[in-house]
Amino acid sequence: MQGVALTSEEMRKLLSCGCTDAVSLYLYRKSEQPIETAMQALHFTAPQMLAATDCLRQLGLWENAQKTPLQPERPVYTEEDVTRAIRDSRGAFTKLIGEAQRRLGRTLSTEELKTLLSFMDYLRLPTDVVGILLSYCVERCRRRGVRAPSMRAIEKEAYHWVDESIDNLETASFYVQQQLELHNRVAQLRSMLQIDHRRLTVTEEQYLASWVKMGFSDSAIHLAFERTCLNTGGLKWNYMNSILKSWHEKNLHTPQQINAGDTAPTAKQMYQRHDDAPTPLEQKAIALALAEGQEG
Prior knowledge:
This protein is mainly α. The protein has helices at 8-17, 20-30, 38-41, 46-58, 79-88, 92-104, 110-121, 127-143, 151-163, 169-192, 202-214, 218-232, 237-249, 255-261, 267-270, 280-292.
């Protein structure tokens, strides 16, 4: 990696973030290395990459590459536009239609064909990227127990990809790999939290994904789970989230860091009686749970 020069402002932000992965990723990007190979070059896992990029975004040090903005509104496509695309795209759009129908397991309606055309014509996504997009959306539904995604759901995801500059084969493959590793971590945490009798709700998935992105190890999350159960009698999502957010703000992400940097619980706190006064952290968590009106 070639040498890089940092401004005093960049140095200040990087030194204040407390995330070594974010520093490594920023230096890698500043050296003008291809971002598609960053995870392999830096030996990052997908959760590490997600946490590092999120940290840099919060610091204002991570911006997507500049691109030509889309038109304010998507064109209104007609059946003639679809027919013309089939004839004029040298078979690319025809192959994409076949791929979409195979993935979704149904014949696309005229309106769905117009939406599919917009991915290529309006969003300017290459056909191979649209193919990965379709596969990703179908697999995500399968994991959630849904037969197949609607074209509206696929369109929403397509706009998200464009906003995040996921617009070539490398970045699309990288993103899907990230999401797969994130899903696997969430599944492991689901088992660790003893949620085996039902699927997770969307909100529960978001909690687990956010803890992974914060950079917590499984053992640290399990420690928060134990403290939550000890103090509340069960899994209370808001309470547990408050504990993990507090640790994250202190840059404590492993049991070793937590034991060294967080206030060690006293014997009274470890074996809390019903008439014991709650700790400040517990008071904060309870207040949050009551404010949101949720018990679990």
